[in-house]
Amino acid sequence: MGTTSVISTKRVIQPNFAKIIPVIVQPMIGEICHQVSFSYGDELELDFGEMTPYDHPKLAHLLKGSWRFGARATPWIVKQGDRVLVVTSESDTDEETKNAKVIVKQLENKKLLDLTVDAETIRLTLNFENHYQLILEPDLQDDSGLAHWELFMPTEQILTVGPGYFWSCKSIHEP
C-alpha cells in the first residue's frame, strides 16, 4: 500500500467537501434562526426550525431548534452587506466579547438564504435575509482536537466539520 502526502489528500477531499456539505444541509435553507445563544466556553449556538423543549426534565424549560448549529472554538464574523459588525478573533476584552454576543443576536428571526463552504480554507458562510452574513473562519493549524462546527439535524444525525479537513455525518446514537 502506497503513502499519500497531505497535499494530495487535501486535493481529493476539498472539492468533495465543498459540494457534499451544502447538499447535506440543503433542507435547512429557508429556515428561520429563532435563537442565538452561547454554551459553555462561549461557544456560539444557533437554533433553526421548529422550537421544542429539551427531553431532559431539568432542561424542559429551555427550547431547542430542530436544526442546532454550534461554532465550537472557531472565530466568527458578522456582516451586514459590506459592513463588518464584529470579528471575534479581535475581541480581546470582556467588553468586546460582550458586545460581540449582542451583535450576533441580530441574526435572530432572520431566514437562512444560503450556506457555502470554501473547500480550501473550510470557511463557512451562512447568508441570511437583510444581507446579514455569519462567517466562520476555522484555524486549520489548531491542534485542540475540537470540531470547527457541528450541526444537529432533525433526522437525529450530526454533521461535524473539523478538526482540519475531517468531516463526518452520522447518527447521534453512534459513539
What does this protein look like?
With 175 residues, the protein is of the alpha+beta class. It has one domain (6-171). Helices cover 18% and strands 38% of the residues. Strands 5-4-8-7-6-1-2-3-9-10-11 form an eleven-stranded antiparallel beta sheet, with helices on both faces. A hairpin with a 6-residue loop joins β6 (110-117) and β7. The radius of gyration is 17 Å and the shape is globular.
Radius of gyration: 17 Å
- Taken together, the total number of domains comes to 1
- Spell out the helices and strands N to C: HEEEEEHEEEEEE
The count of helical stretches stands at: 2
Number of strands: 11
Helix fraction by DSSP (H/I, runs of at least 4): 10-25%
Strand content: 35-45%
Distance between the termini: 29 Å
